[in-house]
Design goal:
Layout (H helix, E strand, L loop, with lengths): L9 E6 L8 E6 L2 H16 L26 H12 L3 H14 L7 E7 L5 H8 L5 E13 L2 E16 L7 E8 L7 E9 L13 E4 L3 E6 L4 E6 L7 E2 H16 L5 E6 L4 E5 L10 H16 L7 E2 L1 H6 L1 H12 L7 E4 L10 E12 L2 E16 L2 E4 L3 E11 L6 H15 L4 E3 L6
Parallel strand pairs: 16-20
Antiparallel strand pairs: 1-2, 3-4, 4-5, 6-7, 6-12, 7-8, 8-9, 9-10, 11-14, 12-13, 15-18, 16-17, 17-18, 17-19
């Protein structure tokens, strides 16, 4: 009653020392700590196999000098009680009720036990606790209310089978992951969420895991096993913004090198830092073609001063690699590696004449088509009717970007060819694409 009554309760000890009047007074407040201690003892007795007999149970309450009232008087006793109660008796009663309702439930109000089915392994359960699955099949389900870590005798839930549904899991921290090949490199940075497994407290140490959830990959860190696993969350057909894909392929290449100096640093939004080692990671399959195609694509985009977002997949990089590489070669390769052969019946063409070959080339880069009109300038060689231009100068005359699927206005392109041709006709013999052998 002293614990559950809403108003303040005290146990007052009087010491007489063999005299008629009280010599010393002590007041022990039935506070939150004492309430918890009493209720915990009662709950353990209720759930034990022994007979309760609460009226026959005893509990020792101790007091010391800290509980002594300054002087033996009603005034001092009142002051001591008010010091514990405060000026608002209603607020005191509300706070006491709140403690009565919550104490013993700090670690939950129920305990649910279940088994995973043959189809769902422990790893599936761990993945579900990391937010990767929304539900799992389970069996032998039982549930009991619990308080102070002691289960009640009666089950409130008993099922042969069921589904474990895990709602949205909130990250315990938000921040960035920085991957570095060595201490002095700039590194690659990804935004991430830190999600520890809900079951880490119950798992063996080697299974305890923390998930770093990034947009296009997951990093699972096993702190006691000193191991990490990186899983990419996209396939070869997933369209990704090209700057992000560039970072992802850099990461893939870093993993493939298995550098002993590579490291990972997690920095939370509150500035805390945690470091991991990448030495034990592994990336078996390289993507050399995709990496090279992306390098060429990035330089083409820069040359064209294109700033709008471009989304591209790994498959598109692989399929269109030759076109991308061809446009890149026209823009950046040495002109001596390029040559053009044509068939002509024009008897007025003389050997060693300076000629211009106008060349149009296109390359699809993800969601956009890049078109360039090039002018290759060099001496002309004649062998029978076959003409060969070996250029020593290359000029980018015009460049255009279209969205894939848009029709290219060929009439406008023809007009541009005519305009460029006129610029060179006075000093050079001009050839156009329809004359190529």
């Amino acid at each position: 009653r002293l614990c559950t009554y809403p108003l303040a309760s005290f146990i007052v000890f009087c010491e007489f020392d063999g005299k008629t009047n009280t010599q010393r007074l002590y007041a022990v407040h039935v506070d939150n700590d004492l309430i918890t201690k009493v209720l915990k003892r009662m709950h353990e007795l209720e759930q034990s196999d022994k007979k309760n007999d609460f009226h026959a149970r005893t509990m020792t309450i101790k007091y010391d000098d800290s509980h002594q009232i300054v002087e033996v008087s009603g005034k001092s006793l009142k002051e001591t009680l008010i010091k514990h109660i405060g000026s608002d008796i209603n607020a005191y009663a509300a706070a006491k009720k709140a403690h009565l309702d919550s104490t013993g439930f700090e670690n939950g109000a129920a305990s649910i036990r279940f088994k995973t089915t043959d189809q769902n392994t422990l790893e599936d359960l761990i993945n579900a606790s990391l937010g990767r699955y929304t539900e799992l099949d389970i069996s032998d389900v039982s549930g009991v209310n619990t308080r102070f870590g002691t289960d009640e005798k009666t089950q409130f839930l008993a099922m042969n089978s069921g589904k474990l549904v895990i709602g949205d899991i909130e990250p315990s921290a938000i921040g960035t992951l920085q991957f570095k090949e060595d201490e002095i490199s700039e590194g690659i940075i990804f935004s991430t969420q830190l999600i520890p497994s809900l079951f880490n407290a119950y798992l063996p140490d080697e299974k305890k895991v923390i998930r770093f959830n990034c947009e296009y990959f997951d990093l699972d860190f096993f702190p006691f096993a000193n191991n990490i696993t990186i899983t990419f969350k996209f396939n070869f057909d997933t369209k990704i913004e090209i700057k992000k894909l560039n970072e992802l392929l850099k990461l893939a290449q870093l993993l493939k090198t298995q550098s002993k100096t590579a490291s990972i640093k997690f920095t939370s939004t509150d500035g805390k830092e945690y470091r991991l080692s990448l030495a034990d990671s592994e990336m078996k399959e390289g993507m050399e073609i995709e990496v090279r195609a992306l390098e060429c694509a990035n330089k083409i985009i820069t040359e064209f001063n294109h700033t709008n977002p471009i989304h591209i997949s790994l498959n598109e990089l692989r399929i269109n690699y030759k076109q991308i590489q061809s446009l890149y070669a026209c823009l950046y390769s040495k002109v001596k590696t390029v040559g053009f052969k044509m068939i002509s019946d024009d008897d007025e063409i003389k050997p060693s004449s300076e000629a211009v070959y106008l060349y149009i080339t296109t390359a699809p880069i993800g969601s956009h088509m890049f078109l360039a009109i090039m002018a290759f300038i060099g001496p002309l060689d004649i062998n029978d009717r076959e003409l060969t231009i070996t250029p020593n100068v290359c000029r980018l005359e015009q460049k255009y970007v279209f969205r894939v699927g848009e029709s290219i206005p060929m009439e406008s392109i023809d007009e541009i060819f005519i305009s460029i041709s006129k610029k060179y006709e006075k000093d050079y013999k001009v050839f156009s694409p329809n004359q190529i052998a």
